[in-house]
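Methods — Computational structure assignment.
A single polypeptide chain was analysed. Its primary sequence is given first, followed by the predicted tertiary structure written as structure tokens.
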Amino acid sequence: MSQFRSVCGLILAAGMLTAGVCDSSSSDPAPAPVPGVIQSEFQARYVAFYSRATDLVPGFTTSGRYHVYVRNLTTNTTARINGIGGAEPNWNSYFPTMSADGRFVAFHSGASNLVAGDTNGMDDVFVHDLSSGQTERVNVTTAGGQATGGGSANAFMSADGRFVAFDSFANNLVVGDTNGTWDVFVRDRFGGTTERVSVSTAGAQGNNYSWVPQISADGRFVAFESAASTLVAGDTNSSTDVFVRDRSLGTTERASVNDAGQQATGGYSYAADISADGRFVAFHSVATNLVAGDTNGVMDVFVRDRVAGTTERVSVTTGGGQANPGPSPDTGSYNPSLSSDGRFVAFNSSAPNLVANDTNSTMDVFVRDRVAGTTERVSMSASGVQGDGNSYWPDISPDGGFVAFHSYAKNLVDGVVEVYSYRDIYIRNRVAGTTALVSANEFGSAANWDSVAPNLSVGLSLTGPHLAFYTSDASLVPGDTNGVDDAFIQDLDTGTIRLVSVNNAGVQGDANSQRPSLSADGRFVAFQSAATNLVSGDTNLKTDVFVRDRLLGITERVSVSTAGVQGDADSGFPSISADGRYVAFTSGATNFATTTAGRAHVYVRDRYARTTTLISVDTTGGEGDNHSSENTDNVAAISADGRFVVFASLATDLVVGDTNGFRDI
């Protein structure tokens, strides 16, 4: 039984907070979604890419080198990531990836003037902060020493930019790296540690190369490809396979297997991507035994469900027919990119039969909807004209609504004539059915040299104020059958209502979810819930505090100790900072800090640092001698920047001279 009393709270975003009491929402029910149709509330904001063009940014000449650029799709401006003091990087930079909010850009470069002290003469991995303008080198040892013995490449970040996975030939990043080949590492930018993840469950290093990692939203799971035979038992196919490392449990598993768990035969498996929660892994493979009926003899794209233990081929027609071989030399399907929930898979394919009227005899970009069972081509113009050149390397947005890709085609944007025979970056809006040029200069014209390897960042498309609330009204969204309070968010301009108290699979909570609190942009929603099915391992039978990331579609429990241990008593009354990083809440748990049983205290969870801190402390840093913010009349509130927390307390020892015997603020 929860110690917290509940009322139906209302939280308004962005920026303003109100509170109220209600019995249920009076809004009209949201319309039921149309099967197979994306109903996106997101908008594409940034696309990072690299290019040799000399006309993307005014006033710069690039001497024919590749540089990393970021295109702001809202302002239609392009910026280059520069070296120290704004100097042009003095060597090539490649393959940028972005954090979920578009703030951080990771890439690898041979330039020596991006950070001070870069004297190793090798490709290094960097993270650039678009907010501060600072660049950090991350392929370093835990002590901060630069890499020696070989270069580093292929960086990919966790959603918040804290963890960076990359591959490296360096031999000094961790102790005991003696295999003389490429390994996969993860740098914790906050903790300042570097860890090798291309190892077996027992910690044995690979006996062949491991590279091209992808990392889950929280940084726990890392997918990568490897030719090593020592990472899992029974690896006897003498081929490259796809693996997943669980950094929390310290386990390594092979993902390029069939439903029976048998290893791939008939060819290699490459190009892994992983869903936000680490459940789904996409890859391409020429193996013939991963699914039944694979007789086309070409590369196909597959998705492995690590929870269900199933493998599915997704480079198929809407009717499920396998892809026919396309024109040489690239006759198959390649380069999968997963939406955050694993529902949508973008890939490129030369197959002429995946959709009707594919007559261009080129590589095209497609999206497979694994729920609706449909396949669509997205490398097309808004008027439906197919591309007149090859299109490759898709990157799909977390919700599946946008796909960025690069292409040699010159007819993808209606009314725009391109005069250069180079690759350009495009973005397809699957909701609107439009295609836009991304690698454009200040006048909107296509770049005068190659632009490749796009990476997409999206944001919430907030058309107006949003309202968070909870209610047991079952008529607001389709499929609300749990008969308990749920947390919702409503767009007050459009009236659209969305359920947020759900788990990563979209299943609603099995007990009351209440007291939602919104980040400034509406991306993050904190709420309290007695549900046991919102996250795995919820066995305490207590009310907990959760945060739903609406962009990535993942739910996280934040009322845990710094070590990640769940509370031994109820937690509730969350208040989230503007950027969603900090969550203040009240808890009676005794295992978050040294506290007295039955006494409520205020804590702050730092979701970036993964720390939980007791806030209602006395002058010595110990717990207060009485309750703090223990009921709905005096809940704690955190400031927009997370620096300050306002709370009420009956404690008499939080400050000197508290002798009035009343609750104070």
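Note: Residues 1-39 have pLDDT under 50 and may be disordered.
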